[in-house]
Structures are given as C-alpha cells and as structure tokens.
Amino acid sequence: MNNSSERAQIPLKVRTLLISIQIRRAKSGIKEIASSMFKKMWNILIDFDGTLHDTESIYASKLDGLFGLAGEELYHIFLVDIHRKVVHEQYPQRHNDLDLHWRLLLQHLGEHYDSDATNLLAVCFKEANKSILENPKLFHEAPLFLDRVVKAGHRLCLSTGGQNSLEKAEAITRVLGTNYFGNVLGEEIIGYLKHEPSYYEEALKKLSWKAENTVSIGDTIITDIYPAKVVGMKTIWVNRRDEKILTEPERTPDYETSNLTSALDFLNKKQF
Ligand SMILES: [Mg+2]
After folding, report:
1. Confidence of residue 144 (pLDDT cuts 50, 70, 90)
2. Three-point CA angle 246, 142, 79, nearest 5°
3. Rounded to the nearest whole angstrom, what is the distance from the C-alpha of residue 124 to the centroid of ligand 1?
4. Which pLDDT score is estimated for 121?
5. 11 C-alpha to ligand 1 centroid (Å)
C-alpha cells in the first residue's frame, strides 16, 4: 500500500487534527528559537551568604542560649547592629576582624570583654563555619534557580564575602551533584573587600566581562548593590528579611525581590 492510499484510510477529522498539531508544534519551535535569539544572556555575579545559602539559621542554631538570648536574636544583633551598622559604616577596612566584632557585640550586650566571652563566641562561630561547608543549607528555591539560570544560557560566577569562596562553591557542587559556577571569586581571591567598587572592577577584569552585560545579585545593599552600581553593573536585591528600601539613588537596586525565583523571571523577561 502506498502513502496516498494509507492517508486515504485515515478519517478526514483525524488528519485535520494531526495537521493542526504539527502546525502548532512548528509555530512554538519557531517562537522558542526566535526568543532565544533575541533574549539577552546575562553574566551574573551571585552572592552566597543570605542569597543562595541560609547562613543566618546555621549561626542562630550555634549561638542559641548564649548570654541568655535566643540564637536568632543574638545573630541578628551581631549581623545588623554590629556588623552592618557599626563595622560597615565606621570600620569598613576591618570587615573581617572578628575580635573587633566581639568587642562591639559584648559592649552592646553590656557583657564583659574577656577571654571567656570571646572564646565562647569564637568556638560558636568556628562550629557554624564548619557546618556551612560540611552541611550547607541552601534556600529552598536556590537549586532550581541555579539549574534554570544555566539552562537559560546565563553565565554564573559565585562571588562571596569573607573567606572560603572556593570551599563554598565546592560545598554547593557536592550537595547538588552539579557544578553551576563557571567561575568563583571572593575577597581573598580579588584582594579587595566586597563593599569596595574596586572589588567589582577587578572581578570584571578577571572574568573579561563588561559591566553593562553583568548583574550583581545579593542580599546586602552595601556589598552587593552599591559598589556594583558604581562600576555600571545592573543589580538585583534579594530582600529576604523585608528590610526597608533605601532612598539614596546610588544604593537603590534596579530590581528588588524576596526570592531568587522572581529574580530569574525578571532577568529572562526584562532588559532593565
Ligand atoms: Mg550576603
């Protein structure tokens, strides 16, 4: 039996349906090709602590009960009242100086600054840092975000504050079973602190990326948004704690979101 006699045996209604399905498939294929041709691919610098990784809850669990405070409360005082409001603003060059942080924290709590108190804090922080690398706790939407970012054709570089950038990237790769990061940068690799525009300038140089094609995504205005804007990058603020938006234009992100899922939707749809 030839093809034309085979076709004649298929009822007209079914043939019409099959043809319309083929046309629809062809149209959606063309649409997909066209959208991928015209969609902008971004270079993305993404922060670790508080953005991909729930660092706060790990510290809170290790600090729980210290100085009679709940872990969440004590870590919040450390992070917001001491680290961000005092150290970032008055001692930016001493961003990683833990002894300064202990001194300011104990003063804030009305506790004595002595070796017992500082040793206790040092042990808790050491345990938290170890736990972050051994049992990382990613935010629930982070794995799907990383997968969708890479599949959409964007380029990802993990860009962390503090120390252990490579170890943090390795920890994520180990738990997810996939390496999503084409590059990893951090303060110890670049040689500048993340609140300095020079950090971002140097990152662009190292990656051979252009500022206008690059987006900085992070949870902290002073380290992820402001200095990236200074060098001409686009910025997405992942405001998980519903912090108050700042009014100064140089500290205002191009986009604010409470999670990474809508950050990716924004990148895929918008051209800023
Ligand atoms: Mg962060």
Report:
1. very high
2. 45
3. 20
4. 95
5. 63
Neighbour order of strands in the sheet with 214-218: 183-186, 155-160, 43-46, 214-218, 234-238, 255-257
User: 87-101, 107-121, 174-188, 208-222: which has the minimum mean pLDDT?
Assistant: 87-101
What is the percent of the chain where pLDDT is above 90? 71
* Number of residues that this document lists for the chain: 272
**Residue ranges per domain, the chain?**
42-54+138-269, 56-134
Question: Domain 42-54+138-269 maps to which CATH number in 1.10.3810.10, 3.40.718.10, 3.40.50.1000, 3.30.420.10?
Answer: 3.40.50.1000
> Cα(160) to centroid of ligand 1, in Å?
7
Res. 31 pLDDT band, cuts 50 70 90:
low
- Region of 140 on the Ramachandran plot (φ > 0 left; ψ -120 to 50 alpha; else beta): alpha
Q: How far is the CA of 5 from the centre of ligand 1 (A)?
A: 68
270 CA to middle of ligand 1, Å? 24
The pLDDT confidence band at residue 17, using thresholds 50, 70 and 90, is: confident
Between CA 124 and CA 140 the distance in angstroms is: 25
Q: Distance from the CA of 50 to the center of ligand 1, in angstroms?
A: 4
Distance 145 CA to ligand 1 centre (A): 17
Rg (C-alpha) for the chain, rounded Å, is 24
* In contact, 213 and 43? CB cutoff 8 Å: yes
Torsion angle of C-alpha atoms 223, 221, 53, 123, degrees rounded to 10: 60
pTM over 0.85, yes/no: no
